[in-house]
Amino acid sequence: MIISERIFKIMEEKGMTQLEFSAGTGIAQSTISDWKRKKTNPSADKIMTICDVLDVSPFDVLQDTIPGKGAGDVDFVIASKGTGEYDVVKKLEKLNKKTKEEVVDYVKKVKNKK
After folding, report:
1. What is the model's pLDDT at position 69?
2. How many whole angstroms separate alpha carbon 24 and alpha carbon 52?
3. What superkingdom heads the lineage (predicted)?
4. Does residue 110 sit in helix, strand or coil?
5. How far apart are CA 104 and CA 64, in angstroms?
């Protein structure tokens, strides 16, 4: 199931119309209709707004869209903005592959010291 299909399913479960959804999210009705008609997804920057309007978590929106077996293990870590964990993840994202591997190795070594 693609993300937009999951959004429409949640809207249906909540009895929310596309007009209500559009008004709540600020996303044009034509854009929402395109998701359905063209089987496309909303842009990533809209997910949190969509979740707020639908009163669901990002996991609720994405849960049926995660690739199944054969696509590798998929796992999520949620870190709240402003926390140390969030800062580390954001900094880690900016590192090159070799440096990321070095950081992971370092963390493993530190963990094994306990």
Report:
1. 45
2. 9
3. Bacteria
4. helix
5. 30
Q: What is the pLDDT of residues 10-42, one digit of tens each?
A: 999 999 999 999 999 999 999 999 998 998 999
d(CA 103, CA 28): 43
The token pair at 111 is: 């963990």
CATH number of 3-65: 1.10.260.40
- Find tokens 């707020």 and name the residue: 52
> Whole-model pTM?
0.57
What is the pLDDT at residue 114? 62
> So where are the chain's domains?
3-65, 84-113
Output the average pLDDT for the chain. Answer: 85
Please give the Cα distance from 102 to 54 (Å, whole number): 41
Structure tokens at 18: 């596309």
Sequence-separated (6 or more) residues with CB below 8 Å from residue 84: none
Task: Write out the H or E segment, with its range, that includes residue 21.
Answer: helix 18-25
Mean pLDDT per block of 10 residues along the chain (114 residues) reads 90 94 96 92 92 89 62 63 87 87 90 78
